[in-house]
Design a protein that fits this description.
The structure holds 2 protein chains of 2 kinds. By secondary structure, chain A is α/β, with parallel strands linked by helices. Helix content of chain A is about 40%, strand content about 20%. Chain A is elongated, with a radius of gyration of 22 Å. In chain B, strands 1-2 form a two-stranded antiparallel ribbon. Chain B has 14 helices and 2 strands. Chain B has 2 domains: about 45 residues; about 240 residues, MetI-like fold (Orthogonal Bundle), CATH 1.10.3720. In chain B, helix 3 crosses helix 14. Helix content of chain B is about 70%, strand content about 0%. Classes of the chains: A alpha/beta, B mainly alpha.
């Protein structure tokens, strides 16, 4: 059998076109950089969530230090951890801290540096209800465990006085792809619900008791928009940028808090006191009246020993810059900045890079 | 067809060197070598692929053994991995796609090759081949924004009301479902079936048709009883090509299938496919067992494809007892 030539031509043409697009997208240095090749190239890979922030930082930093070029591939947190362990990159990045097991595999000690903060927000589609709803930890855990199945459940109504809920089945929507967003969400559920912790647990993707999976923030929000009665979770940034309605969540001091950049930073400040020296800490359900409970750091992973002195200096200088000037650019991109307690602690920790 | 070498040109000159030069000049040896290398490289790639999949999935293979195929749990937290829901989802969505696409595709191919005026046939074929080149993410988006709303509003409630007594059409209606995946896949593979089947039907010697018509057959009898059976091997080949694409399709499926690794008799329920779960979870898979379980799923998909291709060969062998045209 033979395929017709036009078909083959079309397929090939499409493939070539796609390949061309990928090359263009993948190499930001190729198109807009007429300047001579930089002397020092520092490679990093990892989390996709902070990618817009990192590429802005690396771009700004390159303008200040034209001899220095950071190259960051947003291949996912898992990939970032694998590559830093394998030593194929100069630094990694992850939305979840490395586990003790993973740290043991490392040839040199790996340090965690929090860079910015993110948060997850509950988003829903209930016909006739447009206001911001209040969610208690029990309600969120109950819904995601499949125990609360209808919007007219008493537990939902009691947190939302004055709102009339319809008799409508709840459709849970979660991420189908492994992601830091899921990690934060289930980490929170594990903290507030012992049942979730034993039955489901925390990871970048889990064995969901109920629900439909959507790929990416856009997949989840697309399903929520289309499906009456649905409840899902998306990144705060995504919700802000797309002007979505999302609910408040009751924090550990009993206040219903709406996620915004200030309340997420407040969560980090609340957790700062009890923060371990290696910064590997989950700040979900953090103490503090203003703290939004479903928040998290994202980290840069830097080896404690860098053999090349020019690379070492470049990375150390960048970390200092990131904590000072870099933090000033954070909120323009809808990320929450680090609280000053954490900045102070991190500035000290940079000296551990040798 | 390659078994008739041109021997006339081979007037053997004496001596090894002379022979070598002669062959070089003739180009046969060179062509032989180059094409051999092309063929061998394909085999090598396949072997390397299987080898890598096998080597990099040793942890779950040792931990779960054959249970991996039968396990229904996929729990990255506790490290318990079973492939059955994904195998089920892959097979059911592909079967559903074939069920919808084969009658449509073969019917269209018969029309285009036998009945349509040549100008319409050429124009339509061009459009169909264009469809084959559309990236799958486009089909996925089409599925989410066009197909699923249509399924959710008139189609699925209608099926539920009329055929709801069957377990296939029971349960809540979400839109994203095994049915949606089957329909999107059907749309994606129809162009392959039409394009290849049409070629095969056109390759049926015109004498066959003339003989049938000469014996008093109607146009339809000649087409359906002579031409289509004559071309059936090629038509089967087109179907299996389409099936291979359906089994391995990733992006469009994950966008509409609902991504829930559960086995449900209802086509309205969400499901999951092997290719979709690999694409979804690979980038953020931390931990060796988790990563290797995903790689083993890749191996399972490969085995599944081999199995189905083997089955396809058997079908073709069983049906080629009588004379048939190869495309």
């Amino acid at each position: 059998m033979k395929l017709k030539l036009p078909l083959l031509g079309l397929v090939l043409g499409a493939a070539l076109f796609a390949a061309g697009m990928i090359t263009i997208v993948d190499s930001p240095s190729a198109a807009p950089a007429p300047s001579p090749a930089p002397a020092i190239l520092i490679n990093g890979a990892g989390a996709t969530f902070p990618y817009p922030m990192y590429s802005k930082w690396f771009d700004e930093y390159h303008k200040l230090h034209p001899d220095l070029q950071f190259n960051y591939q947003s291949i996912g947190s898992g990939g970032g951890i694998r590559q830093i362990l394998a030593g194929t990159v100069d630094f990694g990045a992850s939305d979840g801290p490395m586990t003790d097991d993973q740290l043991k595999q490392a040839k040199v000690k790996i340090l965690h540096f929090p860079t910015v903060l993110g948060a997850d927000v509950p988003t829903y589609n209930i016909p006739g209800i447009n206001q911001e709803l209040n969610f208690t930890p029990d309600v969120l855990a109950g819904i995601f465990l499949g125990k609360i199945t209808n919007w007219n459940d008493k537990a939902i109504a009691s947190a939302n006085p004055g709102v009339k809920f319809p008799d409508l089945d709840i459709v849970v929507v979660h991420r189908s792809d492994g992601s830091g967003t899921t990690y934060i969400w289930v980490d929170y559920l594990s903290k507030i619900s012992p049942e979730w912790k034993t039955k489901v647990g925390t990871n970048t993707s889990v064995n969901w008791p109920v629900g439909l999976g959507g790929k990416g923030n856009e997949g989840v929000s697309g399903l929520v928009k289309q499906q009456p009665g649905s409840l899902g979770y998306v990144e705060l940034i995504y919700a802000i940028q797309n002007h979505m309605t999302y609910g408040k969540v009751r924090n550990s001091s009993g206040a219903f808090v709406k996620a915004d950049l200030a309340s997420v930073t407040a969560a980090a400040a609340g957790a700062a006191k009890s923060m371990p020296d290696d910064f590997r800490v989950s700040i979900t359900n953090a103490p503090g009246k203003e703290a939004y409970p479903i928040s998290s750091f994202t980290w840069l992973l830097v080896p404690s020993k860098i053999d090349d002195p020019t690379k070492k200096k470049a990375i150390v200088d960048f970390l200092h810059w990131m904590l000072k000037d870099g933090q000033g650019m954070v909120e323009a991109l809808s990320y929450a900045k680090l609280p000053k307690e954490v900045v102070a602690k991190e500035t000290k920790a940079i000296s551990l890079v040798m | 067809m390659a078994d008739t070498p041109i021997t006339a040109a081979r007037t053997r000159p004496s001596g090894r060197v002379g022979q070598f030069i002669h062959r070089l000049r003739g180009g046969d040896e060179v062509a032989h070598l180059i094409t051999l290398m092309c063929a061998a490289s394909i085999i090598a790639v396949t072997v390397m692929l299987v080898y890598q999949l096998y080597i990099n999935s040793s942890l779950p293979r040792h931990k779960f053994g054959f249970e991996f195929f039968l396990g229904r749990t996929w729990d990255p937290v506790s490290g318990d991995f079973g492939a059955l829901p994904f195998i089920y989802g892959t097979l059911v969505s592909s079967a559903l796609a074939l069920l919808l696409a084969v009658p449509l595709g073969v019917g269209a191919a018969v029309f285009l090759s036998e009945l349509a005026p040549p100008r319409i046939s050429t124009a339509t074929t061009f459009v169909i081949e264009l469809l084959a080149a559309v990236p799958s993410v486009i089909y996925g988006l089409l599925g989410i924004f066009v197909l699923i709303p249509i399924l959710r509003k008139p189609v699925m409630p209608f099926l539920k009301h009329t055929l709801g007594f069957l377990p296939l059409f029971k349960g809540p209606i979400y839109g994203v479902s095994m049915l949606a995946a089957g329909v999107v896949l059907a749309i994606m593979i129809v162009p392959f079936i039409i394009s290849v089947s049409r070629e095969v039907l056109l390759a049926v010697p015109v004498e066959q048709r003339e003989a049938a018509l000469g014996l008093g057959a109607t146009k339809w009898e000649s087409t359906w009883q002579i031409v289509v059976p004559f071309a059936r091997v090629g038509i089967f080949a087109s179907i299996f090509l389409a099936l291979a694409r359906a089994l391995g399709e990733t992006m469009a499926v994950t966008m509409v299938i609902g991504n829930d690794p559960k086995i449900s008799a209802s086509l309205f329920a969400p499901g999951y496919s092997i290719a979709a779960v690999i694409a979804n979870e690979f980038t953020e898979a931390t931990g060796d067992l988790y990563l290797q379980a995903l790689i083993e799923l890749g191996l399972v998909l490969f085995l599944l494809t081999i199995l189905i291709n083997g089955l396809a060969r058997l079908v073709i062998i069983a049906t080629t007892q009588k004379g048939a045209a190869r495309g």
